[in-house]
């Protein structure tokens, strides 16, 4: 397929134009005009770029790309090294941040809910980034914690009574702890995200609502894989997923 075909397809699928984001969504670094092999990953780190080179992928498709608003714009140091590798090997870099979090089918929130056995009832709050879900079965917090550890291969940080019954949850993957206060307004039993900060401990205890931090990387592995599967279903192009070891 052609590079422009992939760009048009994903932009339409994820409806990227409706999002206000912290980085550009879509093609961030231009490489080969023809695409034959795509490496998918959570983040466009140097290790991921080197993996793309190793397997001779002509395109890198990630959730976390480059050129974030809160970082210096100069192309020096680590940023220069990443971009240099991409350019030297003529590799395209496509990145989709919030649009890939919020998509109701292949988004990170929807995919994590499915993996943990929840049914999404509503996408709400800013840009639809908070997924309100119901459990398909009655379970205690301790059971949910064990399910998360098994499915994500990572022990989550879990605040709350282990015997608390969990039926209604809110999910915001990655660095979504800032949505915890808003999520409480929906009468949830638990909030699942990737990261945490000091104040979430007190808020969870005082609101009698479980707070689960399961890892930024770990909670955002599934949207990019679902997107890759869509691409493979519609185009004759090989997609490979590389899961970099990231404990955060």
| End-to-end distance | 35 Å
**Share of helix among residues?**
25-40%
CATH topology-level fold name of the largest domain: Udp-n-acetylmuramoylalanyl-d-glutamate--2,6- Diaminopimelate Ligase, Chain: A, domain 1
Query: How many helices?
Result: 10
Number of strands: 11
Poorly predicted parts: none
Mean pLDDT: 97
CATH superfamily of the largest domain: NIF3 (NGG1p interacting factor 3)-like
How many domains? The number is: 2
Order of helices and strands: HEEHEHEHHEEHEEHEHEHHE
**Order of adjacent strands in the largest pleated sheet:** 5-6-8-9-10-7
From the spread of the alpha carbons, the general shape counts as elongated
Can you identify the CATH class of the largest domain? Answer: Alpha Beta
């Amino acid at each position: 397929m052609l590079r422009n075909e992939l760009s048009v397809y994903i932009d339409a699928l994820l409806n990227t134009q409706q999002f206000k984001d912290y980085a550009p969504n879509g093609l961030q670094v231009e490489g080969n005009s023809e695409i034959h092999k795509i490496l998918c990953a959570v983040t466009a780190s140097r290790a991921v770029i080197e993996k793309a080179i190793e397997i001779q992928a002509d395109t890198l498709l990630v959730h976390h790309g480059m050129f974030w608003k809160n970082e210096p714009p100069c192309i020096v140091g680590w940023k220069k090294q990443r971009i240099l590798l991409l350019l030297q090997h003529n590799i395209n870099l496509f990145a989709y941040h919030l649009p890939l979090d919020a998509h109701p089918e292949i988004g990170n929130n929807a995919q994590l809910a499915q993996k943990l056995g929840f049914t999404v009832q509503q996408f709400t709050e800013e840009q639809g980034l908070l997924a309100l879900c119901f459990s398909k079965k009655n379970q205690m917090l301790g059971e949910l914690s064990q399910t998360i550890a098994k499915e994500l291969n990572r022990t989550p940080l879990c605040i709350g009574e282990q015997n608390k019954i969990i039926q209604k949850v809110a999910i915001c993957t990655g660095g979504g702890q800032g949505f915890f206060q808003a999520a409480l307004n929906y009468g949830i039993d638990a909030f699942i995200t990737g990261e945490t900060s000091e104040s979430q401990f007190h808020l969870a205890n005082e609101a009698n609502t479980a707070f689960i931090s399961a890892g930024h990387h770990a909670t955002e592995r599934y949207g990019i894989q679902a997107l890759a599967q869509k691409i493979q279903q519609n185009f004759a192009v090989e997609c490979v997923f590389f899961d970099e070891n990231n404990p955060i």
